[in-house]
């Protein structure tokens, strides 16, 4: 029989079928008396995916994470793959030309290939972020590499040529993309004084295509289909029973870490939720202040940059002073493969994220969220309070309102520390502030990050103030 060429083997992407998981991870038994060449036959392995010690891994039936697979040159290798936690994964071995289709909790895949080269190679998951957080292992191929032969035109060659990688054109913007930007006016009302009570909160993590900019879409990962996630509100002493559900059509595990929580990685340790599942934690609101929450599933920065952040306000026992209007605003930095303004469906760029080179800076999840999509309005004489936080994952914000001065700033959102007459306040990633200002003159006031190049990348909002200006505050020159 004509042997396949090395070129053919390097192009081969495994034949795949749906099947159940075999009971053990083992090589096929060898029969006594067979020759060395006959022993180089079929080696079968079974791997399922899981999260172990905070890392995504492949696991064998004995519970070994990222086991070393040992085969010989010339062996036919079969690996059965299943998603143990329901999230989407794949398996690649670049040097051996192996690339499985993606698989999830909906079934299993079998990948089959011939080990053509001797050496140690890495098998890994190519889903963005998974390899970086531990999803890789070693396959050892013993023996001598097969010599390369001239290419032939067998029917096998023709079939395998169908799997030759091709350049996929950039996708246009998703026409079904929806608005994911949270309205700055949608936040819980102030909480009246009360004895400590139990609050029940339910959040759902949802992956969906959203509008990032005009004619630009992005696959967001969200809490309750919005960015930022819903603002939560409690009083010191309250107990919060929080249930986190992960939509069944999600492709990733998700979780929640609330900076207001003491213990359990802020809840992240015990809310790693697979698609279609849910988990509940209970915590006491012990500290007054405004706190960020975010997803804490590897690769954590990727989940945050995709929109998985929000805030919880814990009011002091006596509550906060009454104001006329409250707004909920969060800044995030986003990392995409194409420049800002590209009329495409943007994909995440993990290298840019690692290098901390954002493509976009956004308020409430999208370009224009607070200037075109949603309105922030007030009247002369009213006192406005803005709850402002930074989801990040990487960049500090220099929060400023062009044309106004903050009358009060609760520094770092600590309610026992108030500064007066502040022009710009610095907010760290994963941090927050509360600012208050009395509106003395009508006009359009711009919310910005005073690293002003970021306004051209999306970080700008508008607060429209109507009414008659207070005499003497400001007077434009006559035209």
| CA(first)-CA(last) distance | 93 Å
Alpha-beta classification? mainly beta
User: Helical region count?
Assistant: 6
**What's the CATH topology label of the largest domain?**
Immunoglobulin-like
Q: Work out the number of β strands.
A: 29
Low-confidence sequence ranges: 1-38, 149-168
Largest sheet: 6 strands, mixed
Superfamily (CATH H level) name of the largest domain: Cupredoxins -  blue copper proteins
Radius of gyration: 28 Å
What best-fitting shape do the alpha-carbon axes yield? elongated
Q: Which strand order spans the largest sheet, edge to edge or round the barrel?
A: 20-18-22-27-24-25
- Under the CATH scheme, the architecture of the largest domain is Sandwich
Count of the domains: 2
Mean pLDDT: 88
* CATH C-level category of the largest domain: Mainly Beta
What percent strand? 35-45%
Q: In which range does the helix fraction lie?
A: under 10%
């Amino acid at each position: 029989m004509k042997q396949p060429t090395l070129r053919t083997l390097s192009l081969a992407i495994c034949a795949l079928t749906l099947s159940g998981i075999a009971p053990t991870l083992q090589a096929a038994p060898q029969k006594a008396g067979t020759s060395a060449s006959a022993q180089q036959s079929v080696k079968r392995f079974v791997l399922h995916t899981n999260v172990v010690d905070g890392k995504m891994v492949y696991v064998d039936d004995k519970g070994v994470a990222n086991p070393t697979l040992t085969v010989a040159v010339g062996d036919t290798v079969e690996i059965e793959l299943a998603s143990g936690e329901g999230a989407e994964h794949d398996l690649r071995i670049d040097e051996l030309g192996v690339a499985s289709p993606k698989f999830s909790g909906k079934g299993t895949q079998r990948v089959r290939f011939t080990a053509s080269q001797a050496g140690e190679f890495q098998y890994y998951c190519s889903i963005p972020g998974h390899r970086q957080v531990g999803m890789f292992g070693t396959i050892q191929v013993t023996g001598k590499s097969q010599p390369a032969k001239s290419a032939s035109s067998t029917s096998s060659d023709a079939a395998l040529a169908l799997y030759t990688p091709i350049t996929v054109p950039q996708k246009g913007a998703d026409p079904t993309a929806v608005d994911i930007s949270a309205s700055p006016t949608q936040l819980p009302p102030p909480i009246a004084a009360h004895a400590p009570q139990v609050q029940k909160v339910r959040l759902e993590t949802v992956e969906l295509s959203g509008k990032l900019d005009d004619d630009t879409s992005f696959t967001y990962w969200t809490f309750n289909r919005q960015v930022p996630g819903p603002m939560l509100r409690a009083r010191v002493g309250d107990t919060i029973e929080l249930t986190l559900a992960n939509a069944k059509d999600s492709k990733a595990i998700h979780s929640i870490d609330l900076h207001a929580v003491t213990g359990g990685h802020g809840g992240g340790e015990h809310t790693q939720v697979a698609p279609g599942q849910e988990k509940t934690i209970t915590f006491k609101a012990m500290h007054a202040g405004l706190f960020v929450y975010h997803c804490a599933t590897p690769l954590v920065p990727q989940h945050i940059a995709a929109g998985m952040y929000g805030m919880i306000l814990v009011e002091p026992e006596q509550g906060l002073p009454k104001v006329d209007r409250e707004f909920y605003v969060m800044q995030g930095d986003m990392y995409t493969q194409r420049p800002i303004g590209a009329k495409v469906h943007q994909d995440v760029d993990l290298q840019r994220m690692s290098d901390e080179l954002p493509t976009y800076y956004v308020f409430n999840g999208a370009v224009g969220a607070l200037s075109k999509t949603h309105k922030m309005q007030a009247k002369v004489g009213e006192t406005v309070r803005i709850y402002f936080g930074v989801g990040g994952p990487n960049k500090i914000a220099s929060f400023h309102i062009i044309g106004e001065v903050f009358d009060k700033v609760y520094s770092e959102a600590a309610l026992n520390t108030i500064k007066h007459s502040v022009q710009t306040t610095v907010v760290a990633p994963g941090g927050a502030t509360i600012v208050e200002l009395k509106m003395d003159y009508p006009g359009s006031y711009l919310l910005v990050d005073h690293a002003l190049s970021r306004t051209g990348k999306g970080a700008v909002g508008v607060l429209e103030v109507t009414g008659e200006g207070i005499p003497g505050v400001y007077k434009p020159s006559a035209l």
